[in-house]
Design a protein that fits this description.
Radius of gyration: 15 Å
Strand content: 5-15%
Largest sheet: 3 strands, antiparallel
Strand order of the largest sheet: 3-5-4
Number of strands: 5
Length: 169
């Protein structure tokens, strides 16, 4: 597959060419919709500019929680990061690189038949709407990714629309 050339901007935030290509690589490995991952990472942290994602030492745009030194595949470099807010408890995962984070994120939401964790039903989805549903029991996941699938889904679809209109080809 050819590399994506250029950047993507939305809401005053920019996704670099290197990060786009890393996301596409890991999305393809786990049969995920790259647009779904891009929109989800914008929703979670404005591509690393908000929330836990804004801590550059974490390299964790989605606020993934640390539970043990063996919770992810051995080819992902990570450690226990900074404490989560007291209301949530625990610690964030600190990834060695953003590529490690993108790999971990794709592994977490990828189906087991493609080497993923098998918790969510995002693999082989062809629209951002269906990808979003796959993050919830409603869409075939074992657990809900967030509190409300309807709000999450509608926000993901709105982000996709905004990205498309902000980045004419």
């Amino acid at each position: 597959m050819a590399n994506y050339e250029g950047t993507i901007t939305y809401g005053g935030n920019t996704l670099s060419n290197a990060n786009i290509n890393s996301i596409i690589f890991w999305a393809n490995k786990y049969h995920l919709l790259p647009t779904g991952m891009i929109c989800q990472m914008y929703l979670e942290s404005n591509w690393g500019n908000a929330g836990a994602g804004s801590n550059p030492t974490l390299n964790n745009w989605g606020g993934i929680t640390y539970s043990s030194p063996t919770q992810f595949p051995s080819d992902i470099s990570y450690s226990q990061g900074t404490p989560r807010p007291p209301s949530e408890g625990g610690y964030y995962v600190q990834f060695a690189t953003l590529d490690d984070y993108f790999h971990c994120h794709a592994w977490l939401i990828g189906l087991e038949i493609y080497g993923g964790a098998g918790i969510y039903n995002c693999s082989d989805q062809t629209t951002v709407q269906m990808y979003s549903r796959g993050l919830f029991i409603y869409g075939g996941a074992l657990y809900n990714y967030a509190a409300s699938w309807e709000g999450y889904e509608s926000t993901m679809v709105a982000i996709e629309s905004g990205i498309i209109s902000s980045n004419p080809t």
